[in-house]
Amino acid sequence: MNVNSSCQTNVLRFGLAFSLAVMISGLCNNQQCLAEDQAIAQADSVATSQPQDTAIPPASDTTLKGAVQSIQLNLEVLRDIGLDIKKLRSASEELYNEVTLQPVSLQMQPNVVGMGTIIYTPVAAAPVYMAPRKKRVDLAMNDMRPIVTLMKEDVDAVLSGQRKIDLPENTDEVLDPLLKIWENLVNRIFTQYSSLEPLTQTSNYDNKAIARIAHAIHKDTKTLEDTRKKVFKIIQKAGKEAQQK
Questions:
Q1: Per-residue pLDDT tens over the stretch 125-150
Q2: Whole-prediction pTM value?
Q3: Nearest CA among 111, 133, 106, 112 for reference residue 210
């Protein structure tokens, strides 16, 4: 691998891990989070019975010389990022639902069937969207804004060399493709959100345009979560292998 390729790979790796490391922690109320909590607890339990240098260290931020910040990736960090991806996905879905609301009505036309029998059948019509409620639109945008902005800022900070990520040993090869996917998704979601800003700050909403972008963000957050799950499994496996050495 040449120097430029190696640097690019390291930067992409750092981008994903730092984005994961700074996300907001919260309580898990679903089976997936409970399973991850159990994996974290198991890793911690094994770590206490083994020499300290063989365990995955807890997440920590250590400022290095030259103002470069080092971030340690572990299972708890990966669990936390899932909570914010869930929140981002939910907010995009709420925005989509708000701008695609239709009036509760049905157009009918009479049809004569037999002697003196009339039935009414529905008439197909183009969808008519209701005016979105500003409070609902603002709420969804406010939920998305801090998450999207923070993810983008963190990726940019790693790309500029301001931050560095420490990954478990022997995970580079399997993580590199996932890190590339992560970087592309973060940049794309940020671009999509930036397009939503002007569309949602006017009194005359473009329902179709907002719905299209909200749906795209919702779709990308699913891929983002799928990527997170894969990274979680890789880190979990690396931790178990480290304990067995």
A1: 556 788 999 999 999 999 999 999 98
A2: 0.66
A3: 133
In the block, tokens 């800022």 appear at 153
The parent domain of residue 64 ranges over 3-244
Counted domains in the chain: 1
**What mean pLDDT is reported for the chain?**
74
- pLDDT digit string (tens) for 49-86? 444 443 334 444 444 445 566 666 667 777 888 888 99
Interior angle at CA 241, CA 237 and CA 245, nearest 5: 170
- Give Cα separations from 133 to 67, 98, 203 (angstroms): 46, 7, 10
| 19 in Cβ contact with 81 (< 8 Å) | yes
